[in-house]
Design a protein that fits this description.
The protein is of the alpha/beta class and about 210 residues long. It contains seven helices and nine strands. It has a seven-stranded mixed β-sheet with strand order 5-4-3-6-7-9-8, with helices on both faces. The model has no long low-confidence stretch (mean pLDDT about 95). Pfam families: PrmA (PF06325).
Length: about 210
């Protein structure tokens, strides 16, 4: 499974909150998940609310990334990485553990005429060394991943990286450890969120 699979099961469409960006997006999650035959849902196939909010923030505040090396953690579709590249980042690296995600990132970067480097694998024992900015959209979706992501983001911030997180009020977001930068009403797929709109906030660490 690779780029051909992504192309076969998605349609290129503007992102609702970030219409400047187009993504190869799927119409329905469960059927696609079954087709992938993987434990992990197809996070790469949809513009999730946290990622949309973070991408909107980056495009509206380009100084946050312009001229800087950016690392997009758990990139999924690459939405946030593409936004960083469009906002003028000098280098953008998208990371994910799913090879299909990185295939989608490559396709979505090309569709938006930007360059995004890709790194496959679990990097959560590190600190995104070399990146000036670390972006993470919708990464607090369960307790186990939160327990690994939070120390990663803390280490990145401790070595001097700017950290921005986009989150649609997921239950495991440790709000006491962050300060809100912006909040958005994000259009989302009904099939994913059981609603047409979710509030999502962009946070930075305290």
């Amino acid at each position: 499974m690779s780029a051909e699979f992504v192309l076969a099961h998605t349609t290129l469409a503007p992102v609702p909150l970030v219409p400047e960006i187009v993504l190869h997006s799927a119409a329905e999650a469960m059927d696609l998940w079954a087709l992938t035959e993987r434990e992990q849902p197809p996070f790469w196939a949809f513009p999730w609310a946290g990622g949309q909010a973070l991408a909107r923030y980056v495009l509206d505040h380009p100084a946050a990334v312009a001229g800087k090396r950016v690392f997009d953690l758990a990139s999924g579709s690459g939405l946030v990485a593409v936004a960083a590249a469009l906002a003028g980042a000098s280098q953008v690296t998208a990371n994910d553990v799913d090879p299909l995600s990185l295939a989608a990132v490559e396709l979505n970067a090309a569709a938006n005429d930007v360059v995004v480097e890709r790194v496959l694998g679990d990097v959560l024992d590190g600190d995104a060394g070399g990146a000036d900015v670390v972006l993470a959209g919708d990464v607090f979706y369960d307790r186990e991943i939160t327990e690994r992501v939070l120390p990663f983001l803390r280490r990145a911030a401790a070595r001097g990286a700017a950290v921005l997180v986009g989150d649609p009020d997921r239950a495991h977001l440790p709000r006491s450890k962050f300060v809100a930068q912006a909040r958005y009403a994000v259009p989302v797929p009904q099939t994913l969120e059981s609603t047409d709109t979710r509030a999502a906030t962009v946070w930075s660490p305290l």
